[in-house]
Write a structure and sequence with these properties.
The chain has 15 helices and 5 strands. The protein is of the alpha/beta class. It has 3 domains: 137 residues, Rossmann fold (3-Layer(aba) Sandwich), CATH 3.40.50; 39 residues; 121 residues, Zinc Finger, Delta Prime, domain 3 (Up-down Bundle). The chain has a 5-stranded parallel β-sheet with strand order 2-3-4-1-5, sandwiched between helices. The model has no long low-confidence stretch (mean pLDDT 90).
C-alpha cells in the first residue's frame, strides 16, 4: 500500500493515490503546510513510487534543490534548467525544491519559465511552509496539495510507542502544533524543560505582585527572544491548568501534570475570571510580537496588564 509510513495526511494520500492509479500525474506540485508534518517524507515516498525505486540516494532521476545559505538563488534554478533538458533513465525526472519559499524573486521568475513549458517527463515538487510567500504566478502553475497538522492523538501515541511516558507525551503534544518533528525535537531538548522552569519563575514573579520584580521580567526573558512564542504558549498552558484545577473536572486534562502542586497553589491565589483575562492578555501579546512589535515593550506591557488584573 502507498504512503504507509506517513502519519496522518489522509487527504494528500487519497489525492495522490487516485492520481497515480489514473495515471494523471501533474508536472508541478506544491506541498504546503507547517514545518514537520511530513511533506518532505511524503515527497520522497511519491518519488519512490513514480520511479519504482527502493532508495533515492543513488537515483539520478531525482534531484533535490536546497537553500544555499539563507536562500535558493537564481544560479541554482539555472542549474535545474540545464539539467531538466537531459532525458531521464526511466519514465520521469523529478525535482524536489525544499523550502521553496526561500527562492529569491529572481529565482522564482526563472523557475516560472520552466513551469510554463516543462518537458513531458519532468515533475517539479515545491515544498513550502507557506504558499503565500511565493509569487502568485508560481502558485497558479502548481497543483497545491495542502498538508494539515497531525492529530494530537497520533503524535501522542507515537511518542508513547517511543518509550515516553503519558504525562510527558501530553506536554510535548501540546507544544507540537501538530508537528511530529517539533514534538520529537522537544522530547530531546534539555532547553525546553529549562525554559519551562523559567516560565514558572516568571509566573511566580507576577503572582508575587512586586512591581520592581515585575518590571524586570522583560530583561529575564531576553534570552528567549527568538523563542518568545513558545515561552508565551508555555505560560498560557500554566494558566489554563490553573483554570482546570479550579474546576470540578478530570485532572488528567492538566498539561503540566508534573507541576500539579505549583498549579494548585497558584490557582488558590487567583479567580477564574482573572485567569481568563490573563490568557487573553498573553494571546494579544503573541499577536503583537508576531506583528513585529518591539519585544521589550510588548513583554513589559503584558506584565503590567497582568499585574493590573491580579493586584
Amino acid at each position: 500500500m502507498y504512503f504507509e509510513n506517513i502519519k496522518g495526511q489522509e487527504f494528500a494520500k487519497k489525492y495522490m493515490i487516485n492520481s497515480i492509479k489514473k495515471g494523471s500525474i501533474n508536472h508541478a506540485y506544491m506541498f504546503e503546510g507547517i514545518e514537520g508534518i511530513g511533506k518532505e517524507t511524503f515527497a520522497d515516498e511519491l518519488v519512490k513510487i513514480l520511479l519504482d525505486a527502493k532508495y533515492l540516494d543513488n537515483t539520478p532521476d531525482c534531484i533535490r534543490v536546497k537553500p544555499d545559505g539563507n536562500s535558493i538563488k537564481i544560479a541554482q534554478i539555472r542549474n535545474l534548467q540545464s539539467d531538466i533538458v537531459i532525458k531521464p533513465h526511466k519514465k520521469y525526472k523529478i525535482y524536489i525544491i525544499d523550502k521553496s519559499e526561500k527562492m529569491t524573486v529572481e529565482a522564482q521568475n526563472a523557475l516560472l519559465k520552466t513551469l510554463e513549458e516543462p518537458p513531458e517527463y519532468a515533475i517539479i515538487i515545491l515544498i513550502a511552509n507557506n504558499k503565500e510567500s511565493l509569487l502568485p504566478t508560481i502558485r497558479s502553475r502548481c497543483e497545491i496539495v495542502k498538508f494539515t497538522p497531525i492529530p494530537f492523538v497520533e503524535i501522542k501515541q507515537y511518542l508513547i510507542n517511543q518509550g515516553i511516558d503519558e504525562n510527558r507525551a501530553n506536554l510535548l503534544v501540546s507544544f507540537s502544533r501538530g508537528s511530529m518533528k517539533k514534538a520529537l525535537e522537544l522530547a530531546q531538548s534539555n532547553d525546553f524543560y529549562e525554559m519551562k522552569e523559567n516560565v514558572q519563575g516568571y509566573i511566580e514573579t507576577l503572582m508575587g505582585k512586586n512591581m520592581v520584580n515585575i518590571l524586570d521580567i522583560p530583561s529575564k526573558m531576553e534570552s528567549y527572544k527568538g523563542d518568545v512564542i513558545v515561552v508565551l504558549d508555555i505560560m498560557i498552558n500554566y494558566f489554563r491548568d490553573m483554570m482546570i484545577s479550579k474546576e470540578n473536572v478530570d485532572k488528567s486534562m492538566i498539561i503540566n501534570a508534573d507541576k500539579i502542586v505549583f498549579i494548585q497553589n497558584m490557582s488558590k491565589k487567583i479567580t477564574y475570571s482573572q485567569v481568563s483575562k490573563i490568557i487573553d492578555i498573553i494571546e494579544d501579546t503573541k499577536i503583537k510580537i508576531k506583528g513585529n512589535c518591539n519585544f521589550n515593550v510588548s513583554i513589559q506591557v503584558m506584565s503590567l496588564n497582568i499585574y493590573e488584573v491580579i493586584k
